[in-house]
């Protein structure tokens, strides 16, 4: 899947726990792709640069 960093600062999309996905650092105003888990479920992720930034990836 593709994610877009619309901020000027770099961020990551990094799965918590078993780290099933990790974009690494995405530069500001850039895109990154990663392979989403194939199993349905909710996967928590954070930005490793700013660990207070968190979200959930839902695979239907
Ligand atoms: Cu960040």
TrEMBL record:
It comes from the Bacteria. Residues 2-59 form the EfeO-type cupredoxin-like domain. Signal peptide: none annotated. It holds the Pfam family Cupredoxin_1. This is EfeO-type cupredoxin-like domain-containing protein.
């Amino acid at each position: 899947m593709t994610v877009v960093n619309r901020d000027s600062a770099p961020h990551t999309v990094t799965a918590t726990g078993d780290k099933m996905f990790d974009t690494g650092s995405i530069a500001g105003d850039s895109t990154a792709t990663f392979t989403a888990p194939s199993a349905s479920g909710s996967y928590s992720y954070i930005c490793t640069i700013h660990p207070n930034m968190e979200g959930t990836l839902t695979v239907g």
